[in-house]
Amino acid sequence: MSRIGRLPVPIPSGVDVAIDGQAVTVTGPKGTLALKVAEPIAVVQEDSVIRVTRPSDEGKVRALHGLSRTLIANMVTGVTQGFSKTLEIVGVGYRVQAKGEDLEFSLGFSHPVLVTPPDGVTFRVETPTRFVVEGIDKQLVGETAARIRKLRKPDPYKAKGVRYQGEVIRRKVGKAGK
Prior knowledge:
The chain is an alpha+beta fold. Helices cover about 20% and strands about 40% of the residues. The strands form four sheets. Strands 11-12-7-13 form a four-stranded antiparallel sheet, with helices on one face. A hairpin with a 2-residue loop joins strand 3 (about 25-30) and strand 4.
């Protein structure tokens, strides 16, 4: 059995789980998330835990086993605590400011860049060079943060751009590096 897949997913108090065949719906204090589990995988709720099982040891089924369990665990974590990604902006004149729900970036272009959050994601500006992407869906939060980072990736020569908090940029030596 998969070491990750066989672990039970604990259901904290205040979280409601509904399993209807392959559809799993998790409702908690922060919202509701739904997932359709891949076909051979079975999901069962026992008391205050969710168990994910697989019918065989075939390669594809084994891969889906751990994946399905992790996706369900992320749903439970999302509706209770939520997920967040902190991004930093490095560079002279680079900054971010909140415009209602949207973010307005000054990233050295001739125009400001406006980013609108998708449904289920919120932005919070901490300082003009640091902001947070928050939501209950881990994949959506990560994808939104990655799209914002893509606006101005940190370059390897001066390390200017949008980066994740704590991200280490490998610096390259310029032309004069003999």
